[in-house]
Amino acid sequence: MEAKKSKKGTLIALAVLAAVLIGCLALYFAMKPAPQAGGKSIVVEVVHGDGTSREFKLSTEAEYLGGALVEGKVVEDNQGDYGLYILTADGETADEGKQEWWCVTKGGETVMLGADQQPIADGEHYELTFTVGYDFDV
C-alpha cells in the first residue's frame, strides 16, 4: 500500500513539474524580444583596450546584431558552436590567454543574448568594449 502511495506522489510531482516547465517555456516565447523587419540604422561604438573609441553608423536590413556587425565590417565573421563569436572588432583582437574579450552592451547595459540572437531596432546604440578579466557582475 505504501509503495502505491509513493508512486502516486512521485507521478503527481512529475506532472506538476512538467506543467511548470511548459508554462515557463510558453512565457519565454511570448515575451522574448522580436526582431524588427526592414531597413534600420544603428550606431555601434567600439571601445578599444587603450580607451580610444570609434563609432560605426550602420544601415542594415539585418534583424540581429551579429549580422549587422559582420555586414558593416565592424567585426570579423568568426562563427562558433553558438553563433558569432566576437574575437576581433575594428581590427583589435582579444587574446583569450590573457582573459581578453569583447563585452556587448546596449545603451550601457550588458545584453543577455549572443550577438546572433540580439534583435535590433532602428535608432539603437550598442557598444563593444574591450575587456580584460572574466570576473564580472551581470
Question: What does this entry look like structurally?
Answer:
By secondary structure, the protein is of the alpha+beta class. It folds into two domains: 1-32; 40-132, Ferric Hydroxamate Uptake Protein, Chain A, domain 1. Helix content is 27%, strand content 30%. It contains two helices and nine strands. The chain has a five-stranded mixed beta sheet with strand order 2-1-9-7-8, with helices on one face. A two-stranded antiparallel sheet has the order 3-4. Strands 5-6 form a two-stranded antiparallel sheet. The protein starts with a helix and ends in a 6-residue tail after the last strand. The model has no long low-confidence stretch (mean pLDDT 87).
Secondary-structure blueprint:
Elements: H1 2-31, E1 40-47, E2 53-60, H2 65-71, E3 79-80, E4 83-84, E5 88-89, E6 92-93, E7 100-106, E8 109-110, E9 125-132
Parallel strand pairs: 1-9
Antiparallel strand pairs: 1-2, 3-4, 5-6, 7-8, 7-9
